[in-house]
Amino acid sequence: MISDQDHSLRRRYPMPTLSRLLAALACLAGLAGALPALAQTYPSRTITMVVPFPAGGSADTLARRIGQHLTERTGQPVVVENRPGAGGNVGTDAVAKAAPDGYTILVTPSSFAISPHLYARLAFDPLKDFVAVAEIGSIPMVVIVHPSFAARSLADLVTLAKAEPGRVSYASAGIGTTNHLAAELFKFRTGVDILHIPYRGNPLAVVDVIGGRVPVMFDFVLTGLQHVRDGKVRALATTGRTRAAVMPDVPTAIESGFADFEASTWFGVYAPAGTPQAIVDKLNAEINAVLALPIVQERLGALGVELTPGPAQQLRDRTAAEFAKWGPIIQAARIRID
Fold first, then answer.
1. What is the distance between the terminal CA atoms of the chain, rounded to a whole angstrom?
2. Residue ranges covered by each domain of the chain
3. How far apart, in whole angstroms, are the C-alpha atoms of residue 57 and residue 124?
4. Which residues pair with 169 in a beta bridge?
5. Domain with residues 44-139+265-333, CATH architecture
6. What residue ranges of the chain have pLDDT lower than 50?
7. Which residues are CB-neighbours of 203 under 8 A, at least 6 positions away?
8. What CA–CA distance (Å, rounded) separates 333 from 185?
9. What is the pTM (predicted TM-score) of this model?
């Protein structure tokens, strides 16, 4: 028996077109039914975690620790592949172009969301070419000064800098690096004029602050911690939302009266755009389970990492917020990398 609806479809579409339409609808229905099964069988082979920076850095350390436990939980190898170059853009672009099947994922710091504002030519869009999978955690920075420098608080630093515009200098690991951007954010929020002295890497910058050749630096908590303990530098404030667990006696910038100054490096896991939601959900659940392990919390906590597990939407929102936050800062500082 032919229904009125069938007659209506036949009138609207010629038979070949109708056949193709019905076949397409059947395929879609089959695909929808297959997605839960896909998540159940995933992963069935090796997952590659691409870290777009050299081995030994923070993102690499986090990826290897998480990858080890993901291997144990899933029964499939999770390997870390370092693909450095162009400030992380080479490896990131490679993941953007990878098959969206959950077997090539990106572990990267927050520079991922900032790069479009820094680089004149970028082959990927962090908001369109990726899907957020899971947030890992963040590492705050610490404002350090040479012991001979007069400032003993962040407010003192602002007072001194405003009294002599352009006379106070700060060291960074180079143009466009995290500590350079943190200092420019501080300038933007406070209206101070402090002079940027870029170095070729963080270690060289720290050496000159310890030596008293440059008085100020916005350093990473982990690298600055031992120098603070040894009395080689003095900590004025950390830059996270809460006090750093490894520096509990050092106030945050927010506590120090600078409510709109927060600059932490955070880390996240992303997959190529088009990755099925069922796979994203599976990865998110597995990574969150790894971050809940006491041994992971203990070892990453000792490195100054404040773990921030949560749903994929949490990382998606943070990526968008970071992208929006840094555009005006970088534009005002006229930072551009060719």
1. 69
2. 44-139+265-333, 140-238
3. 23
4. 195
5. 3-Layer(aba) Sandwich (3.40)
6. 1-2, 5-13, 15, 21
7. none
8. 9
9. 0.85
